[in-house]
Design a protein that fits this description.
single chain; two-stranded antiparallel ribbon; 70% helix
Length: 228
């Protein structure tokens, strides 16, 4: 019995030793296939989210490593296939991260640009509002000035009309008054000579006769008087 048991145990151990390399080899192949499938899924996900555009170089490297892994597995190079498949997965992960970072940066830049444009639009609107308020104030001031000027002109016209309608005072009439004065001065003695037609002319002293002297003096006086 003991001899038979020992023989059976030895046969089992030998069978396990003979089948272990086969199982190990089959496990590496499965690991390589799983790694290849994982890398392929990551690459496809990267293509969907735009990694080819944002991180095209890294995405291309991941795809090249995947192809190398698939080619190595088809030739039975399981270790090479597993290594390249894992490398392809890592590259695909990095491509996804880089694409996400660049997309986030682009979104942030777009948001900042939009905020800057909105702020500029608000400032422009505020400036336009200020200009509109200033223009409105100027218009009000101009209207008030025009109204004041019109009132002054109306007042002046009213005064002119009132002066035209009011009776004008008559111009004063110049009156000339002439005054004649007769002034009698003291008598003036005159000498009278009498001639007789005789042979002999005898001169006798002339008799003196007093003649009063009359002088007329005319004075013209100008005066003003209202017209009747």
């Amino acid at each position: 019995m003991r001899i038979a048991f020992k023989k059976a145990a030895g046969a089992t151990a030998l069978a396990m030793v003979l089948t272990f390399p086969t199982a190990a080899i089959a496990g590496k192949a499965n690991d390589a296939r799983a790694a290849i499938a994982s890398a392929k899924g990551k690459i496809e996900a990267g293509d969907k989210v735009g990694a080819s555009a944002e991180a095209g170089r890294m995405q291309a490297q991941a795809r090249a490593a995947l192809q190398t892994a698939e080619s190595a597995l088809s030739r039975g190079q399981k270790d090479v296939a597993l290594t390249e498949a894992r490398h392809a997965g890592q590259l695909a992960d990095q491509a996804l991260i880089l694409a996400d970072q660049r997309k986030t940066a682009a979104v942030d830049a777009e948001r900042r640009s939009a905020e800057a444009e909105a702020d500029a639009a608000r400032q422009s609107a505020a400036a336009a509002g200020a200009r509109a308020d200033s223009a409105e104030q100027d218009a009000v001031s101009n209207a008030q000035a025009a109204q004041a000027s019109a009132q002054v002109a109306a007042d002046a016209n009213a005064r002119a009309d009132a002066m035209s309608a009011a009776p004008q005072p008559a111009a004063p009439m110049v009156v000339a008054t002439t005054t004649t004065e007769r002034v009698v001065s003291a008598p003036v003695t005159t000498r009278v000579t009498t001639h007789h037609a005789k042979r002999h002319v005898v001169h006798h002293p002339a008799a003196k006769r007093a003649v009063p002297r009359v002088v007329e003096k005319t004075t013209v006086t100008l005066s003003t008087a209202p017209k009747p």
